[in-house]
Amino acid sequence: MKKLFAAALLLSGVSVMAQGMNLKGRVLDKLDMKGVPGAVVKVSGSATSVTTDAEGRFTISGTLDALGRFTRKSGEPYFLGGDLFVEAMEPGQTARVEIFGASGESLASAEHGLKPGWNRIGALPDRNRNFLGFARIKVGGDTWVKRMLHTGGPVPGSWFAGNAAVTRPLAKAAAGQLDITADKLLKKSVAYTNDVADLGDIVLDYPERKLGVGAAPIYGATVLFDGSKGKTAAAAELKAKWKDWPRFTPSDIMFRIVRDPEFPNDTVGHAALQSCCNTTWGYDDIQATVGIYADFQVHVEFNGMGAYDTPFDIAAPNANASDPTGSGQPGYINSGVYVASRYEIQIQSWSTDAAQIPGAHDMGAIVNDYTPVTNQNKPNGVWQAYDITYRNARFSGTTMTSNPFMSVWWNGVQTHNNRKVNAAASGLSNHSGEEHADTTVYGLKLQSEGRDVRYRNIWIRKLNLADPQTNLGY
Fold it and tell me: What CATH code is carried by the domain that includes residue 447?
């Protein structure tokens, strides 16, 4: 018996042909070089994946087999009590078990259907003689070999077996690949040459930036108003993310949830935010209470309707009059997007003739400061969009050391290239109340100017702009 036991130990010396892996790193996004939480990091060709933590970090640990796939040590077939136990990793797998003698002669062969998890296979040969040989077990694309020793007897209770070995020759991988995906960021594949390595910072880029109407919120954006999820959701969003302005005379929000004029017959699925209703500057504006950042990019879509209709939810715009700048005409519109609640990008009736360039207080202007370089205006009833990148003023104590800067794209065309914003001339003298030299950071503001202008798809993304440059091509 001692000799038999020693033989079993000798036969068990077959090593598992597998290698350990431990890879780690951090996933960042290109805009602010901060960690991306929830990114999926996957070993190429494997089902093994992990997600990044709150700081964008990940660690992948496991055993890599000769095929470059992760396995678990517990996944090796094993003998117990004369039976063979085989693990299936997915439904529909089969195990082919072949028994060979010491000289390689075939003694038995059988195919066994498997269910996910461990399976007990009892169809091993009952030999009434001493037997030295091996079993070959195939599951999917993997093959294991196990040495076997049988000492005779009516039942195969004395099978001995060594460790499993993958029969394909092990060539240590010179390179592998991780595939990294994250919401609204481009997929990235990263090659590694060492199975145990710190891959450092892996920077994910953005898809080509879409500007203008329909630009979806990018990674990390805060949605201030959507409109695509119906009136109930829109009303909840307005209440949760906006407040009445001015802050010194608070009242209920006067802006309304109405139909989206692009979908005039849809009373449920699409909604818009209607500026309403006071003709006095600075009353019944709304100011965002979330997404309050010093440096940011913001996307705002707007649609001029003209004079208010009765009932107010009508989605048919008033046509522009022959003189579109005439404030007494039914088609006349007026509102404004106040960046950081201080600097107005004008929304006001103006010619749609591209040859006519608006002035410093007209459509598309940074009010009282800069005229747009091109006229991208659309008629009433057509959605338009401003994409704005803004860098807040810098201060030393209460002393401004750097003016604000902004760039503006109007319907996807750049109309302001890194403008240096100049004090009260940028519209503060109108009614803002948030002064040019005020160190407080304020949220986005939308103006009510007594005309029906509608908004949707408003979102803002925090930036960290170290340099006074806002003409960013992301």
Answer: 2.60.120.560
- Whether 269 and 292 share a structural domain: yes
Q: Whole-prediction pTM value? A: 0.70
Q: CB count, 10 Å around CB of 7?
A: 15
Pick the closest to residue 110 from 122, 94, 97, 99 (CA basis): 97
**Whether the Cβ atoms of residue 70 and residue 43 lie closer than 8 Å to each other:** yes
Q: What is the dihedral of CA 294, 295, 301, 302, to 10 degrees?
A: 50
The residue type found at 25 is G
| Residues 108 and 253 reside in one and the same domain | no
The structure tokens listed for 456 are 């949707």
pLDDT at 208: 81
Total structural domains in the chain?
A: 3
Dihedral of the alpha carbons of 40, 43, 49, 53, in degrees to the nearest 10? -50
Q: Report pLDDT digits (tens) over 120-178.
A: 887 565 545 566 677 788 887 787 777 776 655 544 444 444 443 333 332 333 468 89
Q: In Å, how far from its chain's centre is CA 195?
A: 28
Verify that 313 and 389 share a domain, yes or no. Answer: yes
Q: What are phi and psi of 462, to 5 degrees?
A: -65, 135
CA nearest 431: which of 368, 342, 301?
Answer: 342
- Decide if 230 is inside a domain: yes
Same-domain pairing of 249 and 375: yes
Phi, psi of 220 (to 5 degrees): 85, 0
Q: d(Cα 142, Cα 90) in Å, to the nearest integer?
A: 14
Which tokens go with 464? 């960290």
Q: What is the C-alpha to C-alpha distance for residues 75 and 93, in angstroms, rounded to an integer?
A: 14
Query: Based on the domain organization, do 313 and 370 belong to the same domain?
Result: yes
Q: Which whole number is the average pLDDT over 80-97?
A: 81
C-alpha atoms less than 13 angstroms from C-alpha of 42 in its C-beta half-sphere: 11
- DSSP notation for 57-88: EEEEEEEEETTS-EE-GGGS-EEETTEEEEEE
C-beta neighbour count of 18 within 10 angstroms: 20
Q: CA Rg, the chain, in Å?
A: 35
In one letter, which amino acid is 462?
Answer: K
Domain coverage including residue 447 = 222-463
